[in-house]
Specification:
The chain is of the alpha/beta class and 322 residues long. It has nine helices and eight strands. Helix 3 packs parallel to helix 4, helix 7 crosses helix 8 and helix 8 runs parallel beside helix 9. The longest helix is centred in the last third of the chain and has 24 residues. Bound molecules: manganese (II) ion (2 copies). One manganese (II) ion binds next to loops.
Length: 322
Amino acid sequence: MEEPPSAPPEGDFAFRGEPGQGKWPEMVYGGALSFLRRRYSRDLDGVDVAVSGIPFDSATSNRPGARLGPRAIRAASTMMAELNAFPWGFDPFAHLEVVDYGDCQFDFGYQHRAVEVIEEHARQILATDTAMATFGGDHFVTYPLLRAHAAVHGPMALVHFDAHSDTWPDDGDRLDHGSMFLRAAREGLIDPARSVQIGIRSANELDHGFTILDAPWVHDNGAAAVVAEIGQVVGEGPVYLTFDIDCLDPAFAPGTGTPVVGGLSTAQALNILRGLGDLSLVGFDVTEVAPAYDHAEITALAAATVAHDLLCLLADRQRRSR
Ligand code: MN
Ligand code: MN
């Protein structure tokens, strides 16, 4: 019989964790929250990826509440913080130094400053040569994130999971979670010719040059075909991946502001993401988790798993390059 450990391991790795520390057991139902129990730090020396939250939802067209997303995703991530990653079979944090940077701080009374505040938050992180893994917030937060990333990487390919194209036109000034990717394309932050939208199931007469693999196409053709198509369109340059949780069917992600039926299952989405290891991913976000409409943390757990798998993708790339 195996001996029990002589002393219980210390908890609260959100602030007791050490640089270089891999996954570590901590009770999943308590303790200080951080994403995947990574240590909280604003010192990014030697850090590969900084996780942060953008608790902003003033650009939503329907139900608000995504400002509470980062907190819910951190809570849902605790179950994945202990064991090796499945099906990867390794500890991503043995290969990738990840910290939880905390949230972008807002004054709720100055919502119109959101672009400036979020962009500055991102610029400070990217200036230290650290990649970002970001939790919304509504999907508008991706626009200032793209501005900051494009300032470093130049025009990027966008790999965009969503029920909505988010390319409806605007006047360049609106806070609107349905128009920012057309704006980003017009500003040269992303290159539509190298960008793919996956899971779309809402009408938009114009594709604005983006490749669209809509939800029926994904259901008819399967994950492997989606991966192949993404690889073909995106090619070799820098890629930013944005995952609006409403890409998933409301059965798999009820906790979101603008759900649309007929979407991807969590399994389909994970199968696609796990096939994207050859992309030059420079950053990613997961947005639109609104916990007030969630049931049994289904949506927050899906978002945490998507982000965990994307970190595994980056860790695997490091692992293979060594
Ligand atoms: Mn969206
Ligand atoms: Mn959407």
